[in-house]
Each structure stands twice: as C-alpha cells, then as structure tokens.
Backbone:
C-alpha cells in the first residue's frame, strides 16, 4: 500500500470517528421514560379540579426553569424562555424572541392575568422572551439591572421594570415573593461570564453570549400557607437557606452529574436536606435547544451538555432518602401545588 493511500484511509477513519463522537455527544443523555414512575400523569378528575377551583394553586413547567404559577386569579411567571432557538442557531447566529409564538402563549395560557415575570438570572435560556412579554403585556418585569437592560432593549416602559431588592418581600395578589441571593451553576468553557453584567439596553437580535449572567437569585413564594422555593441553577451560597422550610422545592440540576461527588452531596444537603420539602420537582434538565411543540414531553439534555439520567437519578435517590417525593414534570400541564 503506497503512502498516499495510507494517508487517505487514515484521514477517512479520523473523519468517521469524529462524526461518530459528535453524533453521540448530541444524542439525548437518556430518556425521560426511564423515570416514568416519577413522572406526573394528571387524571381527568385532577385536571378538572385544577381548572374549576379558584383556590387551587397550580404550576405549569415550560422547560429550563420557566414556571407559570396560577391561583385562578393571578399568575406569576418565573423566567421567560419559550422561543428555544436550536443549537446551530444559538452558536452561529444572533438569537431573538419570536413575537408570534409569544402571542400564542398569551392566548393559550391566558397570560393577560400575569402579574409579574421574575427572572432568576439573565442568560438567554432564562430571559430571552421577557422583552417581548413586556411589549405585548403590561406586566411587571422583576430582576437584576442586567435583566432590566434586556427589557430596556425593547423600550419597555420604566414603570414596568422592578429592580430586585434581595430579602425584601413583594406582593402580587395572594402571592408573597422574596428574592434570595444565589449562585449560578459552576462555569464552563462556554458559560464563563458569572458575575458579569449587561450594562446597557440589549437589543435583539443579539448573540447568546451578550446575555450575561448578571447575578443569580432564588425565589421564595408564599401563597395561602404554602411555601415554595424555586432554585433555577445548580449552585448555592452556604447556609443561605438554613432558616427556611418549604412544602415544594423546584430544584435546578443542570450539569449536576459533571460536578464532583463532594459538590453533589453538598448541593443536595444544602437544598433538599436543609429545606425539608414534601415534594421536590427537578428543573433545568431538558434540552432547551429542541424547539418541541410544548404539548410533547421534553427531552433530556444531550451528552455534550450533561448526563441528565445520572443527574436525575442522583436527585431522586437523595430525595427519597429524605422521605420526600420526587415529581418530574414533562409537559406544561397544570400541576396542583401541595
């Protein structure tokens, strides 16, 4: 075999090998059906009660950490990410909110009753659609200065913008909400902007990297005796939650499997063990580059981003050792908050 042919074969094998590795890394890191025993499956009676009772607090999960709380009168939205650009769009083109999609979301989920949008931090997968929501609705947008600059990029009226005052309770109808300073998931090579801010109004379209973290917050929500904590990111401030007990915990698990065993244990001890919730609902586990119709089950993150099956199993195992119940929401159906 001559040298030229040997080089050609070697290069071809390398290319095929790289394609195989890339194909694997872009595959979902497991399937949500592996965890069917923990998936919420609403029955007809439950769904009917949730629609008919104005006293029943429900939540809908739209992926990442976008959560719609609804008590029949008022609504609160944690984060605002519906547009979900594809991975190729995110990497190679500026991203922007889809006004037509937001219009449909407002109609389909009666978002004209929305009192406020509260943003955990200002990365695009948490805040991309807040400017369009603020354009189409007279809703208050609550967040850091970075978050407010995303809204200002669409010239949202200043009287709609509310700068977070940590530990200062806000009232929205029967919802009492307190923002708690928090930490983002540890940085990665493509997500190494923690603590950086958006210092000027951010107009869309914009590169995903222009959506700086701008500080992170958890949200303590109190509603008619129920206590709920939403923690969007897999990061903590030590003992931040030690004096708080909640009924339901929405807990971010993005890249949990990528952290050291010591980090994983500490994270779960500082959240689930400390807060002692009755119910733990994982968030920020889905493939947010997959623009699925929202009536279909969400998919796990690809291997390139996380081993979601491992992250999910770690959370479930720890939750059950704490004698709490793990519930996985895979579609934006009304889940009755206990």
Residues:
């Amino acid at each position: 075999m001559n040298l030229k042919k040997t080089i050609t074969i070697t290069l071809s094998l390398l290319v095929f090998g790289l394609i195989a590795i890339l194909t694997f890394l872009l595959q979902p890191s497991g399937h949500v059906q592996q965890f069917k025993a923990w998936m919420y499956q609403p029955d007809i009676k439950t769904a009917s009660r949730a629609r008919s009772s104005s006293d029943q607090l429900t939540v809908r999960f739209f992926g990442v950490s976008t959560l719609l709380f609804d008590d029949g009168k008022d609504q609160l939205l944690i984060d605002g990410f519906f547009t979900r650009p594809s991975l190729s769009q995110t990497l190679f083109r500026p991203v922007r909110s889809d006004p037509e999609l937001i219009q449909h979301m407002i109609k389909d989920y009666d978002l004209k009753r929305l009192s406020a949008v509260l943003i955990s931090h200002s990365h695009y997968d948490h805040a991309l659609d807040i400017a369009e929501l603020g354009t189409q609705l007279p809703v208050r947008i609550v967040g850091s200065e970075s978050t407010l600059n995303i809204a200002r990029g669409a010239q949202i009226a200043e009287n709609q913008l509310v700068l977070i005052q940590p530990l200062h309770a806000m009232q929205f109808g029967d919802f009492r909400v307190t923002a708690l300073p928090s930490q983002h998931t540890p940085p990665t090579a493509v997500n190494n902007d923690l603590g950086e801010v958006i210092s000027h109004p951010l107009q869309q379209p914009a590169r995903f990297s222009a959506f700086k973290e701008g500080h992170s917050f958890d949200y303590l929500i109190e509603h008619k005796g129920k206590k709920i904590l939403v923690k969007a990111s897999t990061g903590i401030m030590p003992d931040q939650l030690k004096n708080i007990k909640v009924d339901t915990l929405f807990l971010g698990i993005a890249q949990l499997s990528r952290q050291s065993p010591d980090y994983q244990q500490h994270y779960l001890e500082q959240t689930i063990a400390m807060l002692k919730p009755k119910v733990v609902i994982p968030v920020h586990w889905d493939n947010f580059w997959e623009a699925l119709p929202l009536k279909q089950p969400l998919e796990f993150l690809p291997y390139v981003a996380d081993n979601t099956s491992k992250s999910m199993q770690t959370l479930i195992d720890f939750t059950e050792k704490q004698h709490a119940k793990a519930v996985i929401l895979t579609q934006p159906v009304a889940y009755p908050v206990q």
About this structure: Residues 30-186+194-336 form a domain with the Metallo-beta-lactamase; Chain A fold (CATH 3.60.15.10). The mean pLDDT is 91. The first helix runs from residue 3 to 25.
